Amino acid sequence: MNNEDLIPRDKEDLDFIERLKNKSIIEIKEIIPRLLVWLQDGNWPQATPIMKYFQPHVNEIDSELVEILKGNDPSWKYHIINGLLKNSPAKLNENLIAVLRELAQNPSIADQEEEINLLSEEVLNDLE
Prior knowledge:
InterPro entries: Cthe_2751_sf, DUF5071. By secondary structure, this protein is mainly α. The protein has eight helices and no strands.
């Protein structure tokens, strides 16, 4: 089995998650960005199991997460912050904390409309 089998084929594919659960984060490094795409919409059936897989590993995938959080998709940012960062058992590293601070203090208009600044503040306050 190659790692392509760990990426959902479509919105009906839920079989991938059992295969994904058996892989370490290191084994799937090259497909992490493609899996994170499935978090663009938290209502997709694949979103929750992918979030649960990544929650303990947020610091290990921080470069991918920072790229999304610095991007122009407020909905995707919302799902990354609310689904991953807010629920991670890991203590967030400085890269993630810095981007959350930036979102809280200097949100774009689109981020304000999605309340990314408020959500970022909430996560930062929970860290204290």
